[in-house]
Task: structure prediction
Amino acid sequence: MKSIRALASENVTIATGHRLRWTAVWVLVAAWFVAQAANFGGNAVHLVLLVAIGILVYELLAEDPPPA
Result:
């Protein structure tokens, strides 16, 4: 039985993961702006922006494995 990391590395390239994280960031930021404009969620909506910032910090600190 293969680990999740082994399965993910076979099916998802580093570039795909990078694009998915950046897409998630843009979607979360857009959702935050919409929620602010619609006055939805009160102060809890700021957690959406916090998650987007967390993804960006991960993207900044994560090290790509050396090319094979």
Notes: The helical segments are 4-11, 14-37, 46-61. The chain has a mean pLDDT of 86.
